[in-house]
From TrEMBL:
Listed InterPro entries: Carboh/pur_kinase_PfkB_CS, PfkB_dom, RfaE_dom_I, Ribokinase-like
Kinase listed as a keyword: yes
Pfam families: PfkB (PF00294)
Keywords from the named record: Kinase, Transferase
GO MF annotation list: heptose 7-phosphate kinase activity; heptose-1-phosphate adenylyltransferase activity; phosphotransferase activity, alcohol group as acceptor
PROSITE patterns referenced in this protein's UniProt entry, alphabetically: PFKB_KINASES_1 (PS00583)
Residue ranges of domain Carbohydrate kinase PfkB in the record: 12-301
GO CC aspect terms: cytosol
Entry annotated with the keyword Ion transport: no
Name of the protein described by the UniProt record: D-glycero-beta-D-manno-heptose-7-phosphate kinase
Species per Swiss-Prot/TrEMBL record: Parapusillimonas granuli
CDD domains per UniProt: RfaE_like (cd01172)
C-alpha cells in the first residue's frame, strides 16, 4: 500500500453539503437507582460537544490535512452557534444558513462509566427559504473546490440534492454521496455513492451470494450513471464496483468500541484521497483503514493523517 499522500491532500479543497448536527455528550458516574423510577441516576461530571452529521465529515477532512468547507442549515439557537464555533476551531470554512424557524439537529447522549445509557434527539427540517439559500450558496462554492461531498442524514437539507449534483457536473467537480433511504434516483449523476450493507439491501433487495450482489450493484451503478459504487459491509470489509468489475478489501482487525460517525470518517478519507489523485480502489483502501481506526474511539471522532501513516 502506497504512503498516505499528505502533500497532495493538503492542496485539496473539499466542499461538504448536507445535514449538520451537534453531538452532545454528558459523562458521569452511576452509583444508585432513582427512588422515583427504576432507572440509574447519572451524576454528570463532564460535558462535551462535537460536530456531527455533515459537520463531522468536514471535521474529518480537516483532520486529514485537506482544506474543508461546510455548507448546511442550522437554527437560530445555542446549538447552531456552537456548531459555528466548533467548525472554526477545527479549521473548517463554514457557510451556515441560519433558519429562525427550526432547531439545530441535536443528539444528546448520557453516558455512565463510558456506556451510553440514553440518547435524546431534537430535530426539525429547514424551511423553503433556507433550502433556496443553501442551493444558491452551493452554486457559488462548488466551482472553487476539487470535490463535492454530499452527506445525507434525511434531515431535510438535501431536499433538492439533484440540483446540487447537476451543478457539480456542470462545473466538472466530482460528487461523493453518502446516501439515505432507498430512493437512489435522486443521486443520479454522482461520481460514487457509499451505502452501508443495510442501506444497499434497502435499495436493491437481499442478495443470495456475492455474484448476485455484483449483478444488483452493477445494475444500480449503470442506472444511476455512477463511476463507482462502494458498499461498506462492517466486519465483512468494503466492496467497490466500477466498470472494470468488483474489488473487495477485508476489514482491518480492530476492537470495536463505538461505530458512531464511522461512515463519516470513511466518506471523508475517500474524498481527500480521491481528490489527491488516487484511483478509486487505492482511495477505498485508505478509507477502510481509517474506518478501522475510528471505531476504536468513543463517540463521533476523527482520524488524522499521522494515525493512518
Amino acid at each position: 500500500m502506497m504512503p498516505f499522500p499528505a502533500v497532495a491532500v493538503s492542496r485539496s479543497k473539499v466542499l461538504v453539503v448536507g445535514d449538520i448536527m451537534l453531538d452532545r455528550y454528558w459523562f458521569g458516574e452511576v452509583d444508585r437507582i432513582s427512588p422515583e423510577a427504576p432507572v440509574p441516576v447519572v451524576r454528570v461530571a463532564r460535558r462535551e460537544d462535537r460536530l456531527g452529521g455533515a459537520a463531522n465529515v468536514a471535521r474529518n477532512i480537516a483532520a486529514l490535512g485537506a482544506q474543508a468547507s461546510l455548507l448546511g442549515v442550522v437554527g437560530a439557537d445555542e446549538a447552531g452557534e456552537k456548531v459555528g464555533r466548533l467548525a472554526d476551531e477545527a479549521g473548517i470554512h463554514a457557510r451556515l444558513v441560519v433558519d429562525p424557524g427550526m432547531h439545530t439537529t441535536l443528539k444528546m447522549r448520557v453516558l455512565g462509566r463510558q456506556q451510553q445509557l440514553l440518547r435524546v434527539d431534537f430535530e426539525e427540517g429547514p424551511g423553503p427559504g433556507s433550502l433556496d439559500g443553501l442551493e444558491s450558496q452551493a452554486r457559488e462554492l462548488i466551482g472553487r473546490h476539487d470535490m463535492l461531498v454530499v452527506s445525507d442524514y434525511a434531515k431535510g437539507a438535501l431536499a433538492h440534492v439533484e440540483r446540487l449534483i447537476a451543478a457539480a457536473r456542470e462545473a466538472r467537480v466530482p460528487v461523493l454521496v453518502d446516501p439515505k433511504g432507498h430512493a437512489y434516483r435522486r443521486y443520479r449523476g454522482a461520481s460514487i455513492i457509499t451505502p452501508n450493507r443495510a442501506e444497499m439491501q434497502e435499495a436493491v433487495g437481499h442478495w443470495a451470494d456475492e455474484d448476485d450482489l455484483e449483478r444488483r450493484a452493477q445494475k444500480l451503478r449503470r442506472e444511476l450513471e455512477l463511476d463507482a459504487l462502494l458498499v461498506t459491509r462492517s466486519e465483512q470489509g468494503m466492496t467497490l464496483f466500477t466498470e472494470a468489475g468488483r474489488q473487495h478489501t477485508a476489514a482491518h482487525a480492530q476492537e470495536v468500541f463505538d461505530v458512531s460517525g464511522a461512515g463519516d470518517t470513511v466518506l471523508a478519507t475517500l474524498a481527500v484521497t480521491r481528490a489527491a489523485g488516487l484511483d478509486w480502489f487505492d482511495a477505498v483502501l485508505w478509507a477502510n483503514r481509517a474506518g478501522g481506526v475510528v471505531v476504536g474511539k468513543l463517540g463521533t471522532s476523527v482520524v488524522t493523517a499521522g494515525e493512518l501513516s
